[in-house]
Amino acid sequence: MPSVLIVDDEPMICKLLSLRYEREGYKTLTAHNGQDALAICKKNAPDVIITDINLPVVNGIKFIEELKDIENYKPVIFSISGSIETLDNLDVNEQFSKPVKINDILDATKKYLFEKDNNIKNLNIPENFELSKEQLELISELTPGIIHNINNHISFISSSSYLMKKNIENEISNQPNNEKLLNDHKIFEKIYTHSLMIAKIIKSIKMLAYPVNKQADMEKKIISIINSSLDLMQDIIKINEIKVYTTCNENVELRCYPEQIIQIFINLIKNACDAVAKNDAKHKWLKIDVKKSDNLIRISFTDAGKGISKEIIPHLMKPFYTNKKRNNGLGLGLSICKKFMEIHNGEIEYDDESDNTKFILKFNAIKN
């Protein structure tokens, strides 16, 4: 658990920042002057320091300078207030002004801690590479058995939810205005739909592990695939109050394996939801845009995020690479998207020239 030291002579700022960081899973320490802050650093070596410049006893500038004297200690440092000119020669990672925008400092914390952690991991690349190879071999051996077991459970969920759905439909025919029955029917309908989708995803994963030399031959309207994907993600979209804007000619078709394209869309929609969930209402949006030329179909997913760090971009499509918390992702989403795109002779790319976070899918258009 990373630790954060918050140094400010205003107790309310310390309390607000502490509460927010603790909610995000960080351990927090506080100090109200530079002298106490320095003592905490020598004793606890916090990973991140957020310090005001105008501090009593020992000011923020002197406190930051004296941190250099602590042996083998290189924390991430953010300064609050103070002029840019004054701080030019200080070893700080980023400067913020009051009133403090907590989301900005949090985003910077995640960014710099990720970069710091990544630099440490890069020192052990040969050892980690061998470990990853062993993990992949183990996964390869276990996959058939895992898939078989999952299919058994999914079959049970699917058949049970279908029976419940049908039973409720019979009851609704006698009580068409019963709100509880209508809500229950909606729940079991969703369970049944999701169970079918999981079965299709497993089938697609099997296709990745044991590819067949068969070309996708189903022609499907892209708008229907988009709508199916959004329906499956509706709860997450609704809970996070994200607005989705779709631009697509309803007649544009794609030759594909629909369940694989839905899985690609779901991954991109989920990533977008994760990225903008904590934004203010004005910056909670996702735009899905479909453009077709004579030979090419371009589908872009653009969200209100500020883009992806340049250091991260080269690793985006690598298996098991993730910048999310360990419990929130395995780092397989985009790598699987890439594999599914290759099956369709298509491409997935990140647009690093966009002002926002934008992924583009490219498919060959159906020739008339």
TrEMBL record:
Keywords: Kinase, Phosphoprotein, Transferase. Residues 145-367 form the Histidine kinase domain. One of its GO terms (molecular function) is phosphorelay sensor kinase activity. The modification 4-aspartylphosphate is found at residue 52. It catalyses: ATP + protein L-histidine = ADP + protein N-phospho-L-histidine. Residues 3-113 form the Response regulatory domain. InterPro entries: CheY-like_superfamily (IPR011006), HATPase_C_sf (IPR036890), HATPase_dom (IPR003594), His_kinase_dom (IPR005467), Sig_transdc_His_kin-like_C (IPR004358), Sig_transdc_resp-reg_receiver (IPR001789). PROSITE patterns: HIS_KIN (PS50109), RESPONSE_REGULATORY (PS50110). It is an enzyme of class 2 (transferase). Its EC number is 2.7.13.3. This is histidine kinase.
